[in-house]
Amino acid sequence: MLTGAELTAAGIRDRVHEFLAVTDPVVTPRLDFLHARFDAGLAWVHYPAGLGGLGAPRALQAVADAEFAAAGAPDNDPGSNAIGLGMAAPTILTFGSDQQRQRWLRPLWTGEEIWCQLFSEPGAGSDLASLATRAVRDPGQDAGTGPGGDWTVSGQKVWTSLAHQARWAILVARTDPDVPKHRGLSYFALDMTAPGVEVRPLRQLTGEAEFNEVFLTDVRIPDSDRIGAVGDGWKVAQGTLMNERVAIGGISIPREGGMIGGAARAWREHPEQRTPGLHDRLLRLWAEAEIARLAGLRMRQQLAAGQPGPEGSAAKIVFARLNQEISGFEVDLAGADGLRYDDWTMRRPAHADFFGRGPGYRYLRAKGNSIEGGTSEILRNIVAERVLGLPPEPRVDKDVPWKDLPR
Amino acid sequence: MSIAEAEAAGKPGQRAPDLLYSEAERDLAGSLRSLLAARCGAEDLLGRLASVETGDAGPYDTGLWKAIAADLGCAGLLVPEEQDGAGASFREAATVAEELGRAVAPVPYLGSAVVATTALLAAGDDATVRELARGDVTAALAVGFATGPGAAFPLTVRVSGPKSSDGRAGVTRLRGQVRGVADALSADLLVVPADGVPHGLYVVGANAEGVRRTPVVSLDMTRQLCDIDFEDAPARPVASGAEADRVLQVALSAGAAAIASEQLGMAEKCLDMTVAYVKERRQFARPVGSFQSLKHRLADLWVGLTQARAAARYAAGCLADGDGDAPVAVALAKSYCGDLAVRSAEECVQMHGGIGFTWEHPAHLYLKRAKAASIAFGTSDAHRASLARLADLPGA
Q1: Which residue of A271, A282, A291 is in closest CB contact with B336?
Q2: Do residues B154 and B282 make contact, with C-beta atoms less than 8 angstroms apart?
Q3: How confident is the model at residue B168 (pLDDT cuts 50, 70, 90)?
Q4: Distance (Å, rounded) from C-alpha A206 to C-alpha A199?
Q5: In degrees rounded to 5, what are phi and psi of residue B388?
Q6: For testing the chain B interface, which of A293, A375, A383 should be mutated: the one with the most B CBs within 10 Å?
Q7: For position A244, what pLDDT does the model report?
Q8: pLDDT of residue B167
Q9: Nearest-CA distance from A220 to chain B in Å?
Q10: B-chain residues within 8 Å CB-CB of A254?
Q11: C-alpha B389 chain-centroid distance
Q12: What is the DSSP string of B78-103?
């Protein structure tokens, strides 16, 4: 076990080198290598010992990743399990029992088990707490908050990426309709292979289907798969959503490394398309994109210095707007070619492909950036109320039992 | 190695510019904020304007400046210790500018302690730098306040040659006019760019014979400008030719970077004032700050501040470290912070409603400072035009 003094960049590097000396990244089968890396505490070094980490500062994860990459080691393909790594894992770590952490975190990190998120519903988008998927406990069982009777879940979820590949889902369902909406929710892990789970692709305006609709019909969930206390679902979900926002702006990119890079290249390559109006737009967008990149860097410096702030919400608002304006600019710059679209074929991509496709696709896909993961309007409410301390709008749904709310 | 490469290599903090405030900076900002709260509140500012109007006071608060310059040591922040300065960096200097912006303080910090001091440091005028660092004298760069980095060397003043009575060597005479100079009304010394063979920078006593300063009725009453006429004013050369070009560029870059931090401070103060007001002000039986149309605009301003702070700190860090990316950093910061400060001040007036339109409320001081500052050291458009060149994004 590492001592506190070794939880430095140099200490992590030493630890990785020792590990690589024993576990050859070239000849060891990929999954065996990943299991060993997890068990050595070098998977996510900021997680506790025994759960893939060393209890090190979060900032040192980049050190470990860089060392493994330099050695040509296989990684856990984090992009393929973004919801698992970014949202489910921290939630399980914070709110799960020891048994649940032991069961789920290792195959989640290695990517053996993909996770998806069953939160939004057709009738519950921004107002997530109004969701209607019901979880009913078997009668005659212990109704307390400890281990007790199993659950039967029915309802419809929407905008679920990876549902067709996921083994597990994090799920919020209504367990008590007789109390106000925020208080009657509970949080579960749902086995996506259980009977009664039906996944249908949800085709989006770009022509493809990154997302799914998930229909739940009398799906059984053992009570041991409940995360957090009965009725605490909202609190747990809030923790999950915070992690979602922290993830945005958390990635380091070079100058022109984001969407602005494509726009700048197109500008340089097509002098015949340049106009003064487009030039002004480009310069503004270039400056804003570069400053947003610096703000992301500053946010990570704050995190590394142990001064986390609420800047993640700002980063998401800025990222969404810039993606939309830059891609709109790209289509305008393309002129007549902007009338063409690369491909309307219905496909199932794992995630948005902002760099592999044309400006038209980027323009359309970016429309989702200000909707998914919290609309920009909801984020502004959050900033206004939680950061600036402004009073909430008058509420008509706060103290009314969920079942009595107008729908 | 670029920032991103340094980060990717797992070495944050080694090459990446530090965009946070150091503990020393936070201490300095705290001291300054307390001092300004005690001596430069809204009442003080508005009272001062009345005295200026009746001619009972000058445009700059010399007592306050003494406290900031000498007692807190802000005059010599950029000056090395061996030249009687504090030996701090541009980061600290920018932090001070941010606080002074928050207070729209009528002191010549920007013009003297940042711009003129940077010019004379670059020109190697050791004796004058020492005087400036101690806060004994103040100086101003005699260039129109709107002049930004990259501008052509100003040629409105010409060397007129020594008079026959000028026996001693090194004295020459200047003739001409400079319009709209900031922080010069209270200055003891002027650093003057002048045309000649070759062109150069000269130090002129602001109260010397042949120097006439005419106050300008200025949009920003907290930083009053003046026009300066030189009629065979005695001058001492400090830099000439290409060296003078370089010195002027360094000084103007420093001014643009520092005023970006000032704009950040202004924008933040305008948001703070407005948030406090809309929480208190009730209409339709609820605080107006509970209306979403205001909340979202205020949230957007806060989002803008997170971006502006990154830009301003990056510019300050680049100047402090002598980073080659400084021209890009300064253009980014000045254009973004300038636009944000104007928007924040405009929203401050609007969301204060009727009271925000009155003379008695300080919102207008911020509006005027913000609008004037957005033109100072190059407009946002001018800085974006610089980016076009620096980032290889040529025009139509």
Answers
A1: A291
A2: no
A3: low
A4: 20
A5: -55, -40
A6: A383
A7: 61
A8: 64
A9: 42
A10: 2-5
A11: 24
A12: TS-GGGTS----HHHHHHHHHHHHHT
pTM of the shown model: 0.91
Using CA coordinates, name the residue in chain A closest to B384.
Answer: A283
Percentage of chain B with pLDDT > 90? Answer: 88
What backbone phi and psi angles, to 5 degrees, belong to B302?
A: -65, -40
Which pLDDT tens digit goes with each residue over B267-293?
999 999 999 999 999 999 999 999 999
On whether residue A1 sits in a domain, the answer given is no
Question: Do A253 and A381 have their domain in common?
Answer: yes
- In this structure, the strands spanning B172-182 and B189-194 are unpaired
Quick check: is A244 catalytic?
yes
Residue A89 falls within a domain, yes or no?
A: no
Q: Does domain B246-390 have CATH number 1.10.3720.10?
A: no
Residue A216 domain-assigned? yes
ipTM, two decimals: 0.94
Task: Supply the range of the domain harboring residue A149.
Answer: 110-237
**Catalytic residue of the set A244, A311, A325, A330:** A244
Rounded CA separation B24/B46 (Å): 32
Q: What is the pLDDT of residue B53?
A: 85
Give contacts of B332 with chain A, Cβ < 8 Å. 287, 290-291, 294
**Which CATH number covers residue A380?**
1.20.140.10
B170 — pLDDT class (breaks 50, 70, 90): low
Residue A105 located in a structural domain: no
Residues of chain B with CATH 1.20.140.10: 246-390
The larger pLDDT score, comparing residue A353 to residue B237, is at B237
Range of weakest confidence among A27-41, A322-336, B76-90, B167-181: B167-181
Q: Do A67 and B336 touch (CB under 8 A)?
A: no
Is the confidence at residue B349, as pLDDT, over 50? yes
Tokens for B15, please give them: 């090459």
- Could you say which of B7, B287, B387 has the minimum Cβ distance to residue A287? B387
Partner-chain contact A283 B387, CB within 8 Å: yes
Average of per-residue pLDDT across A24-30: 94
Domain covering B157-241 in this structure, CATH number: 2.40.110.10
Domain total in chain A: 3
State the Cα torsion A397-A399-A402-A406 to the nearest 10°: -40
Nearest-CA distance from A222 to chain B in Å? 43
Quick one: CATH architecture of B3-138? Orthogonal Bundle (1.10)
Interface of A with B in 133-172 (CB under 8 A): none
